[in-house]
Amino acid sequence: MSLLPRSPILFTVLMCFSLLVKADDDGVALLKKMDELFRSKTSIATMKMTITTPNWQRTLEMQSWTQGMDDTFIRVLSPRKDRGVATLKKGKEMWNFFPKINKVIKVPPSMMMGSWMGSDFTNDDLVREVSLVEEYHVTKSESENTYQLTLLPKQSTVTVWGKIIIIVNKADLLPLEQNYFDEQGDKIRSMSFSDIRDFSGKKMPAIMTMIPHNKSGHKTIIEYVEAEFDSQLKDNIFTLRNLQTRF
Q1: For labelling alongside 49, which of 31, 72, 192, 217 has CA 20 to 30 A away?
Q2: What is the DSSP letter of 115?
Q3: What CA–CA distances, in Å, run from 117 to 36, 48, 210, 234?
Q4: Is 141 helix (H, G, I), strand (E, B) or coil?
Q5: Is the separation of the CB atoms in 233 and 67 below 8 Å?
Q6: pLDDT digit string (tens) for 195-245?
Q7: So what's the pLDDT on residue 19?
Q8: Which is nearest to 196 in space by CA: 166, 170, 167, 176?
Q9: For position 129, what pLDDT does the model report?
Q10: What is the rounded end-to-end Cα distance, in angstroms, of the chain?
């Protein structure tokens, strides 16, 4: 029986392709970890959001509930003038409730990149309407202490971002920063992660700081005060009726 001679060029190409596929698989797995970091199967969290502009500063206290990647409920607890304002995301649909006017307003897809409560976080940031794993191609590279995940939107993805780069600490596989670029390659905003804490046995950054580079003197900080994961949630949390509940 005769054997065809191996081509060293073909062998090298196949080896490089194999390494590339493994790198992409590793990148997807790491991105999935980033996608689910603050959510898990379910989550209940109390947070503070501090919004700073050149002219004013205000702090919101709020509570959130999440279920998988599809369902999110957020209710503002303070200050008093905003108490009861609530946001519900169920699947691909999102609504806001404003108790002062006793009105539920549906948020159209075109407004998902709009500001949430006047902050530098968008509606999409808060409710995670888009799953990074499902909506972006990812490539992974590394330096001595960090991994870099470079995300490019898939052809079907509706987004204003031309590219997202996430820097992950190798030591604990937790994010350090997340940078957003427009289609021209200009960095539009950056989010840093800090203050690693233990919440219900899960280590994660407690503070996220969003800084827009096109608005001087603006920043928004979200701090997780308490968080609990993988608890049983009541069936009525992610409903329009609960959205309009006064308390």
Answers
A1: 31
A2: B
A3: 24, 13, 14, 26
A4: strand
A5: yes
A6: 999 998 889 999 999 999 999 999 999 999 999 999 999 989 999 999 998
A7: 38
A8: 176
A9: 61
A10: 82
Report whether pLDDT(83) > 70: yes
pTM: 0.85
User: Domain 8-60+112-224 class?
Assistant: mainly beta
The count of residues in the chain is 247
Q: Hey, is 217 helix, strand or coil?
A: coil
88 vs 244: CA distance, rounded Å: 10
Average pLDDT of every residue of the chain = 88
HSE toward the beta carbon, residue 116, CA cutoff 13 A: 29
- CA dist., res. 159 & res. 110, Å (int): 10
Residue 83 has, within 13 A of its CA and on its CB side, a CA count of 7
CA distance 238 to 127: 12
Which residues of 182-237 form beta strands (DSSP E)?
A: 187-199, 202-212, 219-229
So where are the chain's domains?
8-60+112-224
Distance between CA atoms of residues 222 and 203, nearest Å:
16
As given in the structure block, the two tokens for residue 181 are: 């670029």
